[in-house]
Amino acid sequence: MSDSCSVYGLGYDFATDDFKVVTHSRYRRRIGSTFVDVYSLRMGVWRRLESLPHHRVVRMRASGFLVNGSLHWLARKAPEFSYVILAFDLSDEKFLEVLTPTTLDNDNLLFNKLLALIGCLCMLYDTLENEIYIWMMREYRVEESWTKFRVGRMDLEHGLVPFCTISDDDIVLNVDRDKLTVYNMKEDQWRYMKVDGITAMFERAGTFTEESFFSYVWQGN
């Protein structure tokens, strides 16, 4: 795999009572050469599936988000390279597209991330004016159910990554890789969170869910 780069995901297939690992890879030096592999924990084997020549996943080495029995990645679709959400159904092992919000202004984005909060597919983005928003798809694959929330205004060096929700209104975020912050959407207020024993900068993290889990990766200062 030294000449390739991948995105990946782990999820539970309720239809077959099986955990599956999915990787979507492409050779660095061969444009358009992509391939998809699925590992079945129950069978103990890898299988290669169809390629996806018309999609390019935005963030390499990114973990897919599990919502409604499917893994999701943020992608750009050729030839216009417009944003789409690429979903992989773990049961029938087919890819499909989930439409992004129709009012999303791609020309005004500094960064754009996919995430899952309270069982809903979400998109987080930062504008050129440093305004941070979350779009939440309240009803899966229903385009009209996208709902927009303003997270606030922040000057960020490394961006922010939502971890999880701890109440209906509170979201825990990693700000600039070294601060855990709780944002209350109802009150539009921030507060910093202290965790005993954590002094290093963390590059990536995830949450345990009923459907799946993601590993923690820590990076020291």
- Helix and strand content put the structural class at mainly beta
Q: Give average pLDDT, whole number.
A: 75
How would you spell out the order of helices and strands?
EEEEEEEEEEEEEEEEE
Into which percentage range does the β-strand content fall?
over 45%
Rounded Rg? 18 Å
Helix fraction bin? under 10%
Count of individual beta strands: 17
- How far apart lie the N and C ends? 28 Å
Flag low-confidence runs. 207-221
Number of helices: 0
* General form: globular
Major beta sheet, specifics? 5 strands, antiparallel
Organism: Capsicum baccatum
InterPro entries: F-box-assoc_dom_typ1 (IPR006527), F-box-assoc_interact_dom (IPR017451), Gal_Oxase/kelch_b-propeller (IPR011043), SCF_F-box_component (IPR050796)
Domain F-box associated beta-propeller type: 4-187
Pfam families: FBA_1
